[in-house]
Amino acid sequence: MNNLVTHNPAALQALMSETIFTHGATDYEAVAAKEMPIAQESAEEEFVYSGDKSTGILFILRYPAYPYFSPQAEEAFVKTIGALKLTLTNVAVVNLANAHNPNDFKRIMSFFEPKKITLLGVEPASLKLPDIGHNSYMKGRVATVFNTFSFEEMFADVEKKKLFWGEFKTFIGS
Q1: What pTM did the predictor assign?
Q2: What is the 3-state secondary structure (H, E, C) of 29-94?
Q3: Helix or strand or coil: residue 119?
Q4: Counts for the chain of helices (H) and strands (E), in that order
Q5: pLDDT for 155-173, tens place per residue?
Q6: What domain of life does the native source organism fall in (predicted)?
Q7: Domains within the chain, CATH numbers bracketed
Q8: What digits encode the pLDDT tens for the residues 89-102?
Q9: CA torsion sign, 52 to 55 to 57 to 58?
């Protein structure tokens, strides 16, 4: 029998029930860096994320099998934000499925200091936020939170994609 060897934290998480800690970049993170730019993690960085948090635009998702998006979802995401003159380098993307990232809205707000937050398939209740219907948003004191479907949900239902696009243009443009 051959030994199973992997450096993929998502694979390890799926195969093991124990908590796994890593130190430094893994091969998995190196592959992810080629796909999406990742902010360098330092002792001060509380989150592993992609892009630029200084722009005030944050996308929150939860994709356990990918560093950020599936390849198909990443392509759709790039096209979507590109239509609004945004790029992977001038928005921040955080995957809450990454074990390093706290699933705590107050810490997210403190670290990223966003003005506009888009929840892509992340239920507001999981972040202890009030109920926000799909394709609608809630204005807070500091930021506005837009709740919508994951790209996989939109791929499966064209109507969800149409509803998302109409509201998302308004949300980002406001």
Answers
A1: 0.76
A2: HHHHHHHCCECCCCCCCCCCEEECHHHCEEEEECCCCCCCCCHHHHHHHHHHHHCCCCCCCCCEEE
A3: strand
A4: 6, 6
A5: 999 999 999 999 999 999 8
A6: Bacteria
A7: 9-173 (3.40.470.10)
A8: 999 999 999 999 99
A9: positive
- In this structure, the strands spanning 92-95 and 49-51 are antiparallel
What's the CA gap between 23 and 149, in Å, rounded?
Answer: 33
Q: How many CB atoms lie within 10 A of CB 127?
A: 17
Residue 119 Cα to chain centre, angstroms: 8
What is the β-pairing status of strands 116-120 and 144-148?
Answer: parallel
* CA–CA separation, 22 and 7 (whole Å): 10
CB burial of 31-64 (b: ≥16 within 10 Å; e: otherwise) equals ebeeebebbeeeeeeebbbbbbbeebbbbbbbbe
